[in-house]
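Observation: inputs received (chain + FE2/S2 (inorganic) cluster).
Thought: call the complex predictor directly.
Action: predict_structure
Action Input:
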Amino acid sequence: MSTPKRASDTPYAVTVEQGKSYFWCACGLSAKQPFCDGSHKGSEFTPVKYEATDSKEVYFCGCKATQNAPLCDGSHKK
Ligand code: FES
Ligand code: FES
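Observation:
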């Protein structure tokens, strides 16, 4: 498994809408962080789906090192 690109040193705060699905960029190459824009094609990475059960602000991982994808788990501090 190769290492994803560190897109950001901090998470992305996003206000998600209940019932909507979001596709988090796992490879770090997307120009539309924190979401997938198709740039992973040809790599071993695929986006991670997030289904919003509530309308609220969530923190998507930007460093791509989280163990709780697609959300930040604090790993960016390591
Ligand atoms: Fe990174 Fe799709 S662009 S997973
Ligand atoms: Fe990746 Fe926090 S931004 S774990």
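Thought: report the result.
Final Answer: The pocket of FE2/S2 (inorganic) cluster (ligand 1) is lined by residues 25-27, 29-30, 36-40, 45, 47 (CB under 6 Å). The two ends are 20 Å apart (CA to CA).
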